[in-house]
Write a structure and sequence with these properties.
- By secondary structure, the protein is an alpha+beta fold.
- The protein folds into 2 domains: 37-273, no CATH class; 325-470, Protein Transport Mog1p, Chain A (3-Layer(aba) Sandwich), CATH 3.40.1000.
- It has 14 helices and 13 strands.
- It has helices at 37-50, 54-78, 100-129, 137-145, 147-167, 173-198, 204-215, 219-227, 230-237, 244-262, 277-322, 324-333, 389-400, 454-467, and strands at residues 80-83, 89-92, 339-344, 347-352, 356-358, 365-368, 374-382, 405-406, 410-413, 418-425, 429-438, 441-450, 469-470.
- Strands 5, 6, 7, 8, 9, 10, 11 and 12 form an 8-stranded antiparallel sheet that branches.
- α2 packs antiparallel against α3.
- The radius of gyration is 33 Å and the shape is elongated.
- The model is unreliable at 28-32 and 315-337 (pLDDT under 50).
Length: 475
Amino acid sequence: MYCIHCDGQNDNSSKFCSSCGKELQPIKAGKSEPLHNSVIRRSIKKNAYEKNKGALYLGNIILIIAVIILVIVITVSFGTETMSESGSYHYQLDFTTNSFFNISLISIIFMAVITFFILGMNKVSLDISRDKSTMTRDIFKYPLQNIVCYLKVIGINILVYLILEVLMYIPFIGGLLYLILIIYLTPVLAIFPYVVIDNDQMSIIEVIKRTFSLIKGKRVAYYALIFSFIGWYLLSIFTLGLLMIWVNPYVNVAMSNFYLHITNQKEYSEATKGISDGAVIGITIGTYMMLIIIFVLVIFTFAIFKEINNQITEEDNIQIEDNYYDYYDYYDNDNDMYGQTVSVSGLNIFVPNEYTEISLESYEKAYMSKEKDIVIGLITYDLSYDIAAKDYANFYKSAFSNNYSCGQTDTIELNHYNWEILECVGDLVNIKHYIAIQNRKLYLLTISYQHNSSNQSNIVSKNIEENLTFSNTVA
């Protein structure tokens, strides 16, 4: 008789394994006809659905809260401090600019915390599958009381992660090997914790061998079981992820049932016949391929329409250029008839007569042209520290350049006061910034305009610069 825990050979009359000391459980005799794989899969899910999973629900909520706290701590610790348009500071975690060491360290910290919870939930799920009573505190007790088991699981996870991370730096062949290893090792990593839990006295090498032995020939069944839950995961999107609090325990117990099935500890045969495992995998892959094709077609169609729109815009620009000098002469000859100066927070700003006041978030005042292609806006912000306008402009440029291509910051004297001028180009809109700080108060004046309105915006900028003064500035 072979032990289901360690594969050790024993006499048929033995009650306990001579290798690991655990109780021997005889494998049930098979039926005359093997069960269809869909019956096993559906039975595993049915059994998991009917189990009392109360301890896991609260555990998942605690895990979500722990992950949120962990993200905040890591963002503050490894993120960069950037400045928003309103002048406030915030932290941003950018994996594209972090070093390989920092990225690896962040990932390992995540794995260490999440593995702690996952191992505890695996133990509770296994107890639920074995009809044992469970409590939420068991999720935390097991990893703490079985540190060696925890270290085995986290050690394997870190080793696999580092191997995959290195492959990502190998051109072409590395990406292919990465995908192959992910497909090959995912079932192993999913079953590994259960084998560790049931065989805590085994060395890590023995556990790895045992895991590979168990999963051999069962990968299709594993993926079919996992893919059969995709509908629940998609449905959880419409609940903003709240449904995951119920779905994850369901999947956890189903995986525990799958482990008990491949170790012949339990037989699952109470469901009706359905779609085969191969068909489930085929349908899932086919659906994903179809969605990818649809996505590519949508992007392609969008690109075509954008190109058509650019061509139309270019034609409009030609027409605008033809009328440019008439437009400029009309407004430049008599500025008083074309606009007025308004005072906002002690700053005098020139606004064309045709512009109407609008409401924009974070802006103290904002005005839009009748064509809705140019917006003049003012942001003011009381600073709690002393900073030169030039330094602030450089900080602001760094934060703003994530979505815009910004030029150099120039210092220009306008009506006896120095202003920092920053021009940024975007995909659809360009923005010209006027930045000044007076008495620890930030003044950020912006002129946002569409690409085809550059001529008009230049005229607006010229008039604003001629009239831009502080109420308390003496000429």
